[in-house]
Amino acid sequence: MAVGNAGIAVRLEKETSARALLKSFLSRYFYLSMSLVMAGLVVWGFSHTVDANLFHAKPARPLLLWMHGAAFSTWVIFFIAQSALVRVRKVNVHRTLGWFGAALAMIMVVLGCSVTVVMTRFDTFVLHDKDAQAFMMVGFWDMLVFGTCLALAIYWRKKPQYHRALVFVATCHLMDAAIGRFDFWFNHSIFYIGVDLLILLGITRDLVADGRVNKVYLYALPVLIVGQSFAVYLWRGNPGWWQGLTGAILGM
Known about the structure:
By secondary structure, this protein is mostly helical. The protein has one domain. The protein has eleven helices and no strands.
């Protein structure tokens, strides 16, 4: 009996140690790890399309698309750098570099909205894609989410628990562009599910490491799901009023 109890005690000690190690890892390395995961996702996803649709595209794509791609890539690198700076406790450098990120985010929102219109016109009139107009809401919704989350992150920059979650959500939402490069996710209109799964990893991190869910996720995720569903409905359903609105935006 004593031997059995000793075995149970050893097993419980190992389980407790494993939980402690997992909690410590998530507390220290989650955001840095996720920044690398998202960078890998971007490289993997865009590798399917970037050559034919940008580098060696025929006809050549507008210059604005190149600028958009450069800004998007810079943000991914910036997110990795900021996560790493926090990890090595260079908080002052992180805060200073954050103002570069704020300026970059504003540029990305302007570029994102502009490229949505420009590329829709290009796809419609040059590539003769009849479905391009309906997809505009996806681009607009992505920029609305990204811009709103970053604006709130700047406002709450002195509250790390809110700031980091908002930047994380904003960056996760950009990943629909990479996830949508995989045919299955795009053709079944489920690339936003991939985005939400990334955000759910943040929720899981909070539950394990902090024992509670950050309020940012509790408020943001339901709003995101509603907005994502509406964007997909406009894309796939393309109601008459949306056709009229997109036509007006494109000057048709």
